[in-house]
Design a protein that fits this description.
single chain; mainly alpha; globular
Length: about 40
């Protein structure tokens, strides 16, 4: 599951660099997942 989140986060960083900063500062999987779900 973590690998999926990392792949999804990596995919998002290619299109949304600012999201990468948000995910970097907020290492919690919950927040990263919420951000990814909002974009997708």
């Amino acid at each position: 599951m973590l690998l999926f989140l990392h792949i999804r986060a990596f995919y998002l960083t290619q299109r949304f660099p600012i999201i990468a900063l948000i995910i970097t500062f907020h290492r919690h999987d919950g927040l990263a997942g919420d951000a990814a779900n909002l974009l997708i």
